[in-house]
């Protein structure tokens, strides 16, 4: 092999390696590095913004902190019901947001006499963390919050209610061995597997010139090296197959971010007592504002059939 050919091949290899490295870091930055929600970020509906203000300004709101198993300081807002109650709702937010986005749900539960715990998932709000866990690491954090409640109130009856990534977190939590205090779960707009969701989101990017299988492989490697987990392990559909927690699966049929068919797949795979609700005309996590009567009515009828 001539020196010229060797230099050409070395140059091509270096360019390919450098390009792959740069692309991997770009994918990691946009997919796995948390971005904090600010008041300049517009909500998809005014009722969500009103809910933020409801939580932020609630006179009984308390800041609570615990340590995760990997020694991160995790934050949640706790709002007790006005009446003495052993019922608790852990309401779990989605990606690129924080616990305040769930104020609309907290207001409803508090009106029903249910205490509310609103965690900031790792990397968001006031919780420490340098990467997004997509429910995989977060499920263990929610377990810590569950035991935090039980330690305060051994008679607690706990409901998990998550939206989007919070819904995936909810489902992956139900795949764990849970204490009997956890009575029910609600998953609003969950993905079936993180790998599938990554692929769908990547395909929607303008200029996604690298073939999807290669992009996924590079994403999997860089996330494993930098965040320490395998995106293939973030699989709500595997978790629900092990779940014993009664679960309500909710999705909007007009969701363009997470495929509504994932909801029916999750429902079919679930081994637990289950119900299914498709909100017509609702986009991603819009059911609560597009059709609140149907949304909360379905939840009420579902919970009436559980021990919550």
TrEMBL record:
Domain named AB hydrolase-1: residues: 90-205
Gene3D superfamilies: alpha/beta hydrolase
Keywords: Hydrolase
InterPro entries: AB_hydrolase_1 (IPR000073), AB_hydrolase_fold (IPR029058), DNA-binding_regulatory (IPR052920)
SUPFAM superfamilies: alpha/beta-Hydrolases
Domain of life: Bacteria
MF term (GO), any: hydrolase activity
Keyword Hydrolase: yes
Protein name, as recorded: Alpha/beta hydrolase family protein
Source organism of this protein record: Butyrivibrio hungatei
Taxon lineage: Bacteria, Bacillati, Bacillota, Clostridia, Lachnospirales
